[in-house]
Design brief:
about 425 residues; alpha/beta; 2 domains; 4-stranded antiparallel sheet; 12 helices; globular; disordered C terminus
């Protein structure tokens, strides 16, 4: 039975040295990951800690035995508790949040309900998520908006360079900037709050895709200075697969038209935007357990450890002949995610080599003019597993002559 009572807050958690393998070993033991291969593709969706998986399984069994009574009688107050916990964690009000299946669904609800007029311009970065970009392309076909692309640097000089590129693309017709807080391809963290500060006086809204940043780095939604955001809960928070989040500032809710028909809630009630029909409650209830685990580790501790793991392997291959890192090295510009490529080997081929030769699972990705292999460790990742990755990269770069000529490609996920 769900026993969440008080909303978790980000009270002070004892700092953990990101290099303290003894303490992080205790945390690592709370995950049950496959051991017949090394999984360094945690960016697709995240592993549930054992305690969360157990709770999810328990809720599923309760629903399956109690059926309609569970949904009609027990679930509503339990859902209220989860929403209160989630709102406290995100730093916003309960009536500004909607639980969805994922960030892509959240962005569809938001973008397709936004009051665009024909000719309105939307600015997209050239590394925005490849399942979010088509939402705005669809709106260009259906509602006559204009999609403009902003080319972003892989290794920016500073925040001002990024903000300046968006600012230079603005015109009197600009209405929205889509800002990916953490780019899925390279892990680069964009200065969203500074973008919002630039855009707001010009009457331009910033919609934030926080699919990867939410619960990977330590922030609250108000820190971004925006009225609209979409996130995933099944990536770095460790909630069950199929849980996402939509945030709309209360004062903006009346402007968003529902994507789904609803006859239960009044206009301006965020629940009106999420009439999905009967949905499985177990994954939603387990969000509370995921929050409890996350808060026990601590947001700052988690961010520091994930960045430490990324730095551990990238610093050991940086500067090696033939290896190019596509992720900024400055601590404030990335966390767990980093992408690399090896000259002469396509991204898909490189990912295949890592698995076939070394039993390391990672994913080849392409975005714009770039393609590479994305590496995403998690709290359960061991340093010896990253040592194996480093050794594999060294061996492959020493053998590129026999592998050259394979064109770049990319795999999804």
């Amino acid at each position: 039975m769900n026993t969440h009572n008080a909303a978790p807050t980000r009270t002070a958690v004892a700092p953990i040295d990101p290099a303290d393998e003894l303490l992080w070993g205790d945390i690592r033991a709370e995950f049950s990951a496959a051991r017949d291969f090394i999984n360094l593709e945690n960016g697709y969706f995240g592993i549930q800690p054992d305690i969360v998986l157990a709770a999810f399984t328990r809720y599923t069994a309760e629903v399956n035995t109690e059926l309609g009574r569970y949904l009609r009688v027990r679930f509503p107050p339990l859902l209220d508790g989860v929403m209160a916990e989630l709102a406290a964690f995100a730093g916003v009000a309960v009536d500004e949040l909607l639980i969805t299946r994922n960030a892509t669904e959240s962005m569809n609800i938001l973008a397709q309900g936004y009051p665009f007029r024909p000719g309105d311009e939307v600015l997209l970065g050239d590394h925005d998520y490849d399942h979010v970009v088509p939402i705005f392309e669809l709106l260009a076909e259906r509602r006559g908006i204009v999609v403009k692309r902003v080319r972003l640097p892989i290794h920016p000089r500073d925040d001002a360079e990024i903000v300046a590129r968006y600012e230079a693309a603005l015109t009197p017709r600009s209405r929205v900037i889509l800002a990916t807080h953490m780019i899925h391809f390279t892990g680069q963290i964009l200065p969203v709050a500074k973008l919002a500060a630039m855009a707001r006086p010009r009457g331009v809204d910033v919609m934030v895709d926080a699919a990867h940043s939410f619960a990977q780095i330590d922030f609250r939604l108000p820190d971004l200075g925006v009225d609209f955001a979409a996130a995933n809960l099944h990536k770095w928070l460790g909630a069950p697969l199929g849980t996402g989040l939509l945030y709309v500032a209360r004062r903006r809710l009346p402007e968003i038209e529902p994507l789904f028909a609803d006859g239960l809630f009044a206009p301006g009630d965020i629940r009106r935007l999420g009439h999905f029909g009967t949905t499985p409650p177990a994954a939603i209830l387990a969000i509370g357990d995921a929050l409890a685990f996350h808060n026990r580790v601590g947001s700052r501790n988690k961010e520091a450890r994930l960045r430490y793991l990324k730095d551990y392997w990238t610093m050991r291959v940086a500067g090696r002949s033939g290896v190019e890192l596509l992720t900024p090295a400055e601590p404030s510009r990335s966390c767990a995610i980093a992408t690399f490529r090896i000259a002469g080997i396509g991204a898909d081929r490189l990912a295949d080599l890592l698995y076939d030769r070394y039993r390391i699972f990672a994913v080849g990705r392409a975005q714009g003019d770039y393609a590479g292999v994305r590496i995403t460790p998690h709290l359960y990742t061991r340093l010896d597993e990253l040592d194996r990755l480093v050794g594999a990269i060294h061996e492959i770069t020493a053998d590129t002559r026999s592998l050259s000529g394979v064109p770049d490609g990319a795999g999804g996920g």
